[in-house]
Amino acid sequence: MTQLSTPPTGTGPLGRREARLAWGLLFPTLFIVSLVVVLPLLSIFWISFKPVGLADLRAPTPVVREDLRGRPAAGGDPAEIRYRIRNSSQDKLITGVVLTDTLPEGLTIQTLDPRCRMDGAALRCDLGDFEGGHREDFRIPVTVSQAFLDAETAVDATPVQITGSAENIMTNAEFTLENFARVFDGDEFWGVLGVTLFYTIFGTVGALLFGLFAAMLLNKSFRGQGILRGLFLFPYVAPVIAVAFTWVNLFDPFSGSANALLIQMGVTQQSINFFGQRPLALIMVTVFEIWRYFPLSFLFILARMQSIDSSMYEAADMDGASPFQKFWYLSLPQLLGILSVLFLLRFIWTFNKFDDIFLLTGGNAGTRTLTVNVYEQAFAISNIGAGAAVAVVIFGCLLIFSFLFFRFISREEGL
Amino acid sequence: MSMLRFGYVTGPVLGVLWMIVVATSVAVAMSFATGEAFRPSILLCLVWGALAGVAGVGARRGPANLAIGSGVVFLATLFGIGPLVMGEGVDWVARAFAALLLALSAIPPIRAILVQVTTLGALSRHEFEDAVIRFLTGFGYIFFTAIVVIPFYVMVMTSVKSQSALLQNPLDFSLDLDKGWALFRSYSELFGQFNFGSYLWTSFYVSVLTVLLTLLFSVPGAYAVARLRFRGRAAFSRSILLIYMVPMIVLALPIYIAFSMTGLRNSIAGILMIYPVTTIPVALYMLQGYFRGLPAEVEEAGLMDGLSRLAVIWKITLPLSLPALASVSLYVFMIAWNEFLLAFMLLDDPSKFTLTRGVAMLNSSEIPREHLMAGSVIATVPIMVIFLGLERFMTKGLTAGSVKG
Prior knowledge:
By secondary structure, chain A is an alpha+beta fold.
């Protein structure tokens, strides 16, 4: 009986070394991405259950101002050191407020508040808890010496310090479902969702169709083809802020060229408020989306078209296929892969789009999509929690999309 | 469909359609150029288009007939009975120019569209479809050029016109050349009073630093994913793109909160922490695709000769992938340059604005429109110059860069 030799299992030292190197190379990326992407995503879930508004972002702190009252003129005159203290928040409690200060030389304290202690020149007062909106004038009677007056020291030359701990809304154990209740409240949510779907579906399909059309135009070589290809990419390459404001300008109801043109051609008698009325505003932002992103689909479809083998078309010509037949039976099946991938990716990206609508209409006139709603809730209504809740809803939708995406992407090679 | 496949139907129908397209385009172009009243007359388009269509099919082919047809349309338009109607105040030079433009872009192309349609009788499927495709092609060129050019034309021209002049006639983009350099008043005010010079510089160095940081992080990462074997490689290379599915506004909200609490808001350092992270995934994805295409043998030779892995990356892989690095850099530069949302949310201090944030500041009713448009032009021109100069790399970057938008 000879002993059976088994092939080595697991990873050898060389393999382990390689894996270590790989993770070492990947570590900076992983670290920074988890810091800036994963951490915020998790915190969005946390915040969405928190009753937090924009104003709560600044934690309540005790604030103090110090001055010397009583205008002492000669040595031995009485005076008062006054500390004006308040709670910066109107409704939040601050616990354990402690005031510390160093008294300037030449001041003798007459009577000390029971809450305070002197240790040499150092003053320390335990002021206890401050209710929201608490204000207090805290006075210490002193006598001044001539030396103090001669030295002309300001009493706040040594800055007074005050500390206290307030409960941070972000880290305490207070949770609420009200944010979600507010998001799903009534018809508004379904209205927003409907607008989002309209914008996403028509924006995506429109950009794909226009891109396909443009790609077919340029899928032959002629003089000026390069120039036209560059030109067609302009809307995508230009900064969104520039083109969005240009569109607003162009379609302005008072000084917009588009309206002037339409009136002149007799299409309309009155100027149209393109970005200000329902449902035209929604159609216009969708048209803008198509205009801005058709170049991208154009580029991809053109790249795919140029890689199709031309001998297939020659064979079809021999068989007497007409141009439309060639497009329908030969080109389209070849393009179906790239078209479906583009559709999925563009769908998700259009769904996520925020800047365009925000700049064109600010979400008014029936153009509020989910992403714009995040901004509206968090910053316009100053309810960060509700904004985060909308973000969680968006994230849920995206999980569904990315599931689909992975199923398709594994089938479609090349992207 | 088969009903249309007769020369006497196809010819006039395509003729009419083309005539409408051309008359509308010429009217729009002339209106934008002169500010005068030009409009297409649908009724006359029908008549002239049908005539041209029939003539295009039936008449004998030759340059003489083409010239006669063009001449007739030219004269008819000049005297107000052509497809294009002009207002009373239009001077004769503009009139003649518009008529000539119309005649030349209507008659010869109709002839070209119908080149395969040689009979007024029944057409073969091939002849018919060829004519339709020729029509669609011509229409497509005009249409796409118009929708791209018009907004940019309006942007540039508005920036050199005064708002009151535009309110009077929104179509009059003609330049008052007598004003000389005063035409560029809004530009000089932006650079003088609104500090646009410093915004330009901020945007520039933020974009360049973003490119450098992105490359610093993504080159080693991409190399690891492309070349090294480790557990979880496949899952990793797929999930890179998942990060791209996260909408920016969802991230911007917690980032805003965190930056507010830590005091990073309103600082360029904060912006520079965020921008590269938004671009690292796509850069990594693009680069790993390229690295995979490089022959591994060259690197193995380097390893045999005693180079370490890092030295191999530095001395062999990177020099070989310069074109890919150029594409990635351009693409990342474009994203960083155009970025608006984060700059808008995180920067409040006018001395630290990037260009896009600066332009957003101009969107107020107290600041005249031409300033806003001039700001837009300032933001657009640099990226366009870079794009046109390096279009080859840029298109490659866009295609490889997947579909970020």
